[in-house]
Amino acid sequence: MAKSLDELKSISKEIRKDIVKMLTESASGHPGGSLSATDIMTVLFFKEMNLDPNNEKDPNRDRFVLSKGHAAPVLYSVLARRGYFPVEELSTLRKFKSRLQGHPSIQYLPGIDMSTGSLGQGVSAAVGMALAGKIDENDYRVYTLLGDGELEEGQVWEAAMCAAHYKLNNLTAFIDFNGLQIDGDITKVMNPCPIDKKFEAFGWNVLVIDGHNYEEIIDAIEKAKECKDKPTAVVCNTVKGKGVSFMENQAAWHGTAPSKEQCETALKELGGEI
User: What does the pLDDT look like over 155-190, one tens digit per residue?
Assistant: First the structure.
């Protein structure tokens, strides 16, 4: 497990390279939202969460649900580099008979706590896991990652209401607020803002941070643990396509794979080779 900020930053760079490489190989997938969530995922899987790849069904483990299931590449990379399956398998993304499909499946791959894809369903499952922990008097924590465009789904707010009602302080939801979804600017498609005020109105403890600042991510997790009677929503201001200059803040890179030439350019920026 990484402890220092330098270690975490180094790991995140490898994860970003993995994302670019596997999407180039698959010729399809979602780079923008995978890259924007990389720093959050790095902190969770390499510093914070109580996990053991050799005992993946440990009932006392922390749970993670990728509610924005289309960002599967970042989840696959962190799982591989955490030791759940060989890193070499990442090159099979979206290929026939691969365990690494376009959206994560609990049936095929170790380390997946919930199959996701249809937006809004992941956070709902995370609420159920947190409630189960309370009923079973187990002290594991549940983490989930949502997209900002995902907040346009009504099911998200049913889940939010439920979590607050049951005072699920063992649940932390990260919102990847990069401002862009497949159809463009979220405020023009179906404006979910102000995100922080909405979660506050639903009875959540709310924190607003820079989703690429490791100190702020770590601090938010600690503050969430200190809250004793509410679930916590961490609104993370992020950059879609973070780390690859020509992908940053471009909605077109929501679901477009890079060409081999673009991959080479991206890897040079990230400090790697194809």
Answer: 999 999 999 999 999 999 999 999 999 999 999 999
The crossing angle, in degrees rounded to 10, of helices 121-135 and 154-165 is 10
Look up the CATH number of domain 5-51+61-270.
3.40.50.970
| Domain map (residue ranges) of the chain | 5-51+61-270
- Cα–Cα distances in Å, from 76 out to 101, 188, 221? 10, 31, 22
Closest by alpha carbon to 147, among 23, 32, 11, 24?
32
pTM, full prediction: 0.97
Non-local CB neighbours of 90 within 8 Å, separated by 6+ positions: 18, 21, 22, 76, 77, 80, 100
Token output for 248: 């940053």
Number of H helices, E strands in the chain: 10, 7
